[in-house]
């Protein structure tokens, strides 16, 4: 058997690793912060020099040179002036140039080139071009690597003529090796000091941890291990722990737990058997419920007049929502979306009863409103539980695209015309099924054209909530539909579900989420 490390070794190794990581972290973070400070100082120094030069130069003459590219007497005076500034300021290079969109710059002045010479831009072209076009100095530091000029940081200042137009950019470069040498020296000193201080701290910390934490934990471990192996000590080792803190409380709690655990084990088998029985029954109920709802897609592979896809996600093992679609005859398709009051097993049983009754009434050839009325009549005749169901039911005449619908207190359907967006269709709501005997439902027709889509859903979709109790809402649902409005029915539902998952961000949902998307493709040729 492989021997595992004990808590002593793990704690010691952890302290050593922690010390090394802390030293590295301090070194890296310190170098980053120090690098920013030093780079800012040198960059600010570059801008001070650049501003002094800018104030001394004739910008209109600079503008002249960017068009003629020929030197004159003033140019030679400026050349001598900039050479002295570069020599006495400690700058690596001082030059004036005009950038071009092909990522090159043409020099007005540079100690290493002649007026009119060009070079590729080694620094960030976007920053330099933005400075030239906007007339504002870059907000970030410019650095460049070049085989010709080395590793440099640049201060870049736009030069404007008397009309306020940017005519060129003034650069003051500082050699990065100077900055890097300062940073290296700082990091080495900081790491050495940190390592010494942390080593002393870790030794003291290890001594304290061993005495006050590790040894008591080992005693607790030995006691629990002996209890688990069925060989408890005659005298509890936990009495030796007198730390006057949470560890002593833990030892007393473990001792009490061992006594109560012996009593609990006696009842565990019967409790486990009961839970397994309930779990098996719930699993069977879920399978029965799912078997009553169509879940094979496409449901009618030989029909080319329409596309349909639906999903149902119960909030618990079984739910009260249901959808259905079925061919009443060769030219009529029934569409159902319903939501039963309540949750769990009672709602699932009521759902199955409602589904069977509604489909049976529809198969008798009744209209959409008559189907809901007959379903309501059958449920109200023996509704001892006072449960009810909201339902939207439609009968599509496949050949003409006429959809006859009736609504029993359900959510508004959402319709998309072929070249339009998804929009709520605010139909007339009747009373819920099972709520009152003799309810009459209003029927209406929707004429569907090829490419039109219908989205049906239960209240679990717009009422999906995040951790802050904010609802997903109808507006977000419509936006999610329209973000993939030209996709297939399956892809549309997948996109809606994805948007809900992003919104709720893992928050537990307490209502079933059921939805269906139907697309009318037109009469088959």
Please give a structural write-up:
The protein is an alpha+beta fold. It has 2 domains: 7-180, Beta-Lactamase (2-Layer Sandwich); 294-520, PPM-type phosphatase domain (Phosphatase 2c, domain 1, 4-Layer Sandwich). Helix content is 47%, strand content 21%. It has 10 helices and 16 strands. The strands form 3 sheets. Strands 3-2-1-6-5-4 form a 6-stranded antiparallel beta sheet. A 5-stranded antiparallel beta sheet has the order 7-16-15-12-13. Strands 8-9-10-11-14 form a 5-stranded antiparallel beta sheet, covered by helices on one side. A hairpin with a 2-residue loop joins strand 8 and strand 9. Helix 7 (344-363) crosses helix 8 (368-380). It is flat, with a radius of gyration of 40 Å. The chain starts with 6 loop residues before the first helix and ends in a 5-residue tail after the last strand. The mean pLDDT is 84.
Query: Fraction of residues in helices?
Result: 40-55%
CATH homologous superfamily label of the largest domain = PPM-type phosphatase domain
Q: Which CATH-level-2 architecture of the largest domain? A: 4-Layer Sandwich
Radius of gyration: 40 Å
| CATH topology type of the largest domain | Phosphatase 2c, domain 1
- Helices and strands, in order, run as HHHEEEHEEEHHEEEHHEEEEEEHHE
Major sheet strand order: 3-2-1-6-5-4
| Strand segment tally | 16
- Give the DSSP E fraction (strand runs of 2 or more residues): 15-25%
CATH level 1 class label of the largest domain? Alpha Beta
Largest sheet: 6 strands, antiparallel
As an assembly, this protein is: single chain
Number of helices, counting only DSSP H or I runs of 4 residues or more: 10
- End-to-end C-alpha gap: 74 Å
Class based on secondary structure composition and strand pairing: alpha+beta
Mean pLDDT: 84
Number of structural units classed as domains:
2
